[in-house]
Amino acid sequence: MPPRKRTRPTLGFLCCFSSSETPEINLKDSEPLQLLEFSAPMPPEEELHARFSELVDELDLTDKNREAMFALPAEKKWQIYCSKKKGCRGPF
Questions:
Q1: Contact predicate 48/42, CB 8 Å
Q2: S-S: 91 plus which of 12, 14, 37, 43, CB 3.0-4.6 Å?
Q3: Burial of 77 (0-12, 13-18, 19+ CB in 10 A)
Q4: How far apart are CA 76 and CA 71, in angstroms?
Q5: 3-class DSSP state for residue 50?
Q6: Number of C-beta neighbours around residue 52 at 10 A
């Protein structure tokens, strides 16, 4: 069987950008983007510290980075915890 001749790959989706016109982007929703809000209220300081400590241990950080994480304000710790733990749940 003779070898197949290689063909030049096609441009695929890039062909739609061949014209000099800038594509127009239309948003279906006219509402502005909103920041994510955490549905669970922040737990008491002791529980937050315990949960955050578990998370930091899982991250296997250096001592310097661990210190920086624990130096963060409580609100930021809670945001980090909720972003890393899907389905963030409240203290109860």
A1: yes
A2: 43
A3: buried
A4: 10
A5: helix
A6: 21
- Provide CB contacts within 8 A for 39, sequence distance 6+: 88
CA 7 remoteness from chain centre: 40
Counting Cβ atoms within 10 Å, is residue 39 exposed (0-12), middle (13-18) or buried (19+)?
Answer: exposed
| 45-84 residue pLDDT tens | 999 999 999 999 998 899 999 999 999 999 999 999 998 8
Spatial distance between the Cα atoms of 32 and 5, rounded to a whole number of angstroms: 53
Let me know how many helices (H) and strands (E) the chain has, helices first: 3, 0
